[in-house]
Design brief:
single chain, Alpha-Beta Plaits, Rossmann fold, 6-stranded antiparallel β-sheet, 11 helices
Length: 618
């Protein structure tokens, strides 16, 4: 066995030398030691995390099986958990694997711990909600969509009376969550046996105004029917009953949450050691548009803790009832915001409540605040949500000269909500048309969007067309009270030549315009077909779509609009068939998930749409 591995090792080293391949990672971190005598952070003996370059061949998989067995896979970041055979040491396996072309990194499977310290359970007041002025924010909160917070932690007591109505569920009532300790999906257990995840979940979103226990940050407004349903929690279990996990469980949990619809990832956990796998998972979640919130750590130092130190995460320090940074909180220029974290009363498994302390408690304050902002205005980007939270803050008092980032402060969700326009009369934000090109006799859908929810009685937007002989619109459209958007129909009339029409929406002193191209019904070039090859792929792989016209594209090319029915498959917004050509290809990028999904891809040109389906496996 040793001889076979040695021969394979020399062969791989030779291939790597000849190809000029070198190992690197995005943050240029030094290679972590794999010698158990030199690894200072707790780790799982005999386990390695192996990250591959995207699209590599089967050689690394074969070699991983030579040194042990693949115990888990994280498809979103091309990473594997390898359990080594008993006779193979971590240093020798690591040196061997690092020499394989296509292996991007090899690192220990570090243990990751919750950042919390249980405190006096008799503390019975939620001073933190007053400090961040949550009650004032609730008065302005008019949610436009449901926002999902993934509590990446030790699970959630989903039977707790303050949490049972806040759990995201499938249509059949099953809990929408993930158990990273059982990646194959058998007998998944989302229950929290440690208490940490339940405590964090209650801080973020315990049900409000239900006559039970405590109030979470997100959210409540007596004017909003079923307001408790607009922020829901997803238990993502990555820590065990001792509140410890590993790089493998954390990276798996982050990746799963980002792939399964979580808008906000709340991570009250971390380690002082950099992990490429966790870094990749954070990058993946950021690329999916998630807001990532992470506890900064309780080590009373300025040393970076991960994942909080990653630039894509909002790093949260802890303050006390007097807005002073706590003595045990991490500090330094890399901290993005502070929030209450000393003696925070929240939910515990079994229906109980206790006051705990830690940056773990500060983190879900920020996560809940992010949910308030994003449910109020779903048109914000993740960066805009983050900017609103980090810039609309209150002062804090440093502890013994210890400070956080320059210009940063203590969370104030009310000020952040005002910062995105809440409390001010809404105005017209945008006008869009879909499609932007139609044939005579067909229609396009216009959409007006406001800067905030419409007031009681609705918000009237006036409409006009620059050429009513080519396209007509209603004289006005009303955005219903509490909504931020509404649609109207643009009707294309009969034209003999290609005609451009400007559609204008106006309200008060604000006007927005969009252009519609109306083609004669006799236009010879239309969309003939859309095909996809292959028609079935494994999640994480790509497929090729092909649009074909009925005749060669005109001068300037033919821009075909594209859309997908599901986030499991991403397509570009359009593909251009070059002038004189009759077809063009585009790439369909898919994401991994633990379900089989059939996605419909639709192409539209000159008012004609064609669709094709792609089945995505796992």
């Amino acid at each position: 066995m040793r001889f076979v591995r040695a021969v394979l090792g020399w062969m791989c080293v030779l291939v790597a030398f000849q190809s000029g391949w070198t190992q690197a990672n995005a943050e240029a971190q030094p290679l972590p030691s794999l010698d158990p005598q030199q690894i200072k952070t707790p780790f799982v003996p005999g386990e390695l995390i192996v990250g591959l370059e995207p699209g590599v061949n089967a050689l690394p998989m074969l070699v991983m099986e030579m040194v042990g067995g693949v115990a888990a896979q994280i498809p979103a970041i091309d990473a594997y958990l390898v359990k080594l055979a008993p006779e193979i040491s971590m240093p020798s396996a690591g040196e061997f694997l690092r020499a394989i072309p296509g292996v991007r990194y090899v690192e220990p499977n570090y243990k990751v711990f919750a950042f919390a310290t249980p405190n006096d359970p008799s503390f019975g007041q939620q001073y933190g909600l007053n400090r961040i002025q949550a009650h004032l924010a609730w008065d302005l909160w008019l949610p436009q969509r449901t926002v999902y917070i993934a509590i990446i932690d030790s699970g959630i007591d989903y039977n707790h009376p303050d949490l049972a109505n806040k759990i995201r569920r499938h249509s059949n009532g099953a809990i929408y969550g993930y158990d990273a300790f059982n990646v194959l999906g058998w007998s998944q257990d989302f229950m929290d046996y440690a208490g940490h995840g339940t405590h964090c979940a209650g801080i973020a979103a315990a049900e409000i105004n239900n006559g039970i226990g405590v109030a979470g940050v997100a959210a409540w407004n007596p004017a909003v029917a079923n307001s408790h349903s607009y922020v829901q929690l997803m238990p993502v279990k990555v820590l065990d009953e001792e509140t410890s996990g590993t790089v493998s469980t954390i990276a798996n949990g982050i990746s799963w949450a980002a792939s399964n619809g979580a808008h906000i990832l709340s991570m009250s956990l971390g380690t002082l050691d950099f992990s490429t796998a966790i870094s990749d998972a954070v990058n993946y979640a950021a690329s999916m548009g998630c807001v990532l919130v992470a506890a900064a750590g309780n080590f009373a130092s300025s040393a970076p803790a991960y994942p909080a130190h990653h630039s894509q995460c909002i790093a949260v320090a802890a303050t006390d009832a007097n807005d002073q940074l706590t003595s045990w909180s991490q500090y330094g220029h890399w901290i993005d915001i502070a929030a209450p974290g000393q003696a925070i009363l929240s939910t515990l498994p079994g229906g109980g409540y206790e006051s705990w302390s830690g940056t773990s408690m500060a983190c879900p304050y920020v996560s809940g605040a992010a949910a308030i902002l994003w449910s109020y205005n779903p048109y914000l980007t993740s960066q805009q949500v983050r900017d609103a939270l980090e810039t609309n803050v209150d002062p804090y008092t440093p502890y013994d000269g210890r400070t956080i980032g320059n210009g940063k402060g203590r969370l104030n969700v009310y000020r952040a909500l005002l910062g995105i326009g809440a409390g001010s009369p809404p105005s017209l934000s945008s006008l869009s048309l879909s499609p932007t090109t139609v044939l005579s006799g067909n229609t396009s859908t216009g959409t007006v969007t406001l800067t905030g929810p419409a007031p009681s009685g609705g918000f009237v937007v006036n409409l006009s067309s620059s050429n009513t002989a080519a396209a007509t619109v209603p004289s006005s459209v009303t955005v219903p009270a509490g909504s931020m958007t509404t649609n109207f129909t643009v009707s294309a009339q009969s034209v003999s030549v290609v005609t451009s029409v400007t559609i204008t929406a106006s309200a008060g002193s604000v006007s927005r315009q969009a252009t519609l191209t109306v083609n004669p019904a006799s236009t010879s070039v239309t969309l003939d077909s859309l095909t996809i090859q292959p028609t079935s792929v494994i999640g994480g792989r790509t497929a090729t779509g092909t649009v074909r016209l009925t005749a060669p594209a005109p001068a300037g090319g033919a821009v075909v609009q594209l859309r997908s029915s599901s986030t499991r498959a991403s397509v570009p917004s359009s593909v251009t068939v070059p002038a004189g050509a009759t077809s063009a290809n585009f790439t369909i990028t898919t994401r991994s998930a633990r379900t089989i999904t059939t996605v419909t891809i639709t192409a539209t040109y000159n008012g004609v749409s064609r669709s094709a389906q792609l089945t995505i496996g796992y």
